[in-house]
Amino acid sequence: MPEETPSKSQRKREMLALQELGVELVELGDEQLAALDLPDALRDAVVQARRITRFEARRRQLQYIGKLMRSVDPGPIRAMLDERRARAHRQTALLRHVEAWRERLLDDPDGLAKLLAEQPGANVSRLRALIDSARRERAEARSPHSSRELFRALRSLLEEGDE
User: Fold this and answer.
1) What span, in angstroms and rounded, lies between the C-alpha atoms of 65 and 45?
2) Domain segments of the chain: what residues?
3) Which CATH number describes the domain made up of 87-162?
4) What is the fold of 8-72?
5) Is the pLDDT reported for residue 145 higher than 90?
6) Average pLDDT score over residue span 10-35
7) Mean per-residue pLDDT, 103-125
């Protein structure tokens, strides 16, 4: 039985997926792009696409990047981009967790005791002072300097706890 070749639609989906991967390469920072082992022609096309501002010219350049991507193994590129996304999601989750703790500490009188149960190594006196100051700022509708400082303290405490 002869081996089936992919349909034209399937080949087009694969080419569009490679082009979308090329778009993500264009959006990478210089350090992240340098970390990838890309052929010189592809790296030059990506750098050039960053400088192009006109819509049609940029679209054509992205199509060209998609064409160049066909000769490259997309696996390592996808893996690096997936790791980058996962890191960003972990960072976002951490910041949301910190924000939730800050709100809990400011709204709940027993919030500090709950935090200390989870994070026994916390600097209690500093946290208590920041919480009191942040509550006063909130009550007096002042600028939230202590609230920001509380956020920074919680972030460093919870980052240490995660590691």
Assistant:
1) 6
2) 8-72, 87-162
3) 1.10.60.30
4) Diphtheria Toxin Repressor; domain 2 (1.10.60)
5) yes
6) 90
7) 90
